[in-house]
Specification:
There is one protein chain. By secondary structure, this protein is mainly α. It is built from 13 helices and no strands. It has helices spanning 12-25, 27-36, 48-56, 62-75, 81-85, 89-95, 99-113, 119-122, 127-135, 142-152, 164-173, 182-188, 196-209. The protein is globular, with a radius of gyration of 18 Å.
């Protein structure tokens, strides 16, 4: 049975197709593709560990979040909700978790361990339902959901409008006087549908090629 387009996962083949469509739609995106080549897929394994890592990445550099995540993995043999809940607050603070991130990640782990949230079921849900399910948890907002949908579930039309790197790249690409707000970004990228997740990868590709700024998120 064929899935609806919204539920299909991005593949190397559909990424290429999306890039061609976007290049024809937008000459600035075409220029990124011509200059820098195909962007990475940036794929992550669906599940608790990935969602926890994305929470760690909220409002800090990717490198700083990765360092905390790696220290956590060094303490916990297998990163499951149950094993995470065995660590107390002092241990987590020592690893590098802020008080807020301890609260958010513990809430996520509890929700999964008690059966309130089943991440494996999200893969067959539409984007609106996934967003509702995840945002019930404290500390999970649109950016976190967007990154999980885009990288873990590989949905083709998710656009993380609250991502700082995306906003910076878009401003530079379009020669805008001011950085666009998330609402403005959402409005200005509607014509990229249904390939906005591919456009996001192009913008990250472009952002990372302009090496000097730390990659952070909002």
């Amino acid at each position: 049975m064929t899935q609806t387009p919204e539920l299909e996962s991005l593949t190397e083949e559909s990424l290429t197709r999306g890039l061609m469509v976007l290049a024809n739609l937008d000459s600035d995106l075409a220029r990124i593709l011509e200059t820098l080549g195909t962007p990475p897929m940036w794929k992550r394994e669906p599940g608790f560990a990935t969602l926890l890592c994305i929470i760690l990445e909220q409002q800090v550099s990717v490198a700083a979040a990765k360092a905390v995540f790696n220290r956590l993995c060094g303490v916990v043999a297998t990163l499951t909700p149950e094993n995470f809940l065995m660590l107390d607050d002092v241990q987590l603070r020592g690893i590098g978790f802020s008080r807020q991130k301890v609260l958010y990640c513990r809430g996520l782990a509890n929700a999964i361990a008690t059966g309130q949230l089943e991440l494996s079921k999200l893969e067959k849900m539409d984007e609106t339902t996934i967003r509702t399910e995840l945002k019930r948890l404290k500390g999970i907002g649109d950016w976190t959901v967007d990154i999980y949908l885009l990288m873990a579930l590989q949905r083709p039309d998710v656009f993380p409008k609250g991502d700082l790197a995306i906003a910076i790249a878009f401003q530079k690409l379009k020669n805008l006087a001011t950085r666009p707000t998330p609402v403005q970004l959402e409005a200005m990228t509607q014509h990229w549908r249904p390939w906005r997740a591919v456009a996001a990868r192009l913008l990250w590709h472009y952002y990372l090629s302009n090496a000097n700024s730390p990659q952070t998120s909002t």
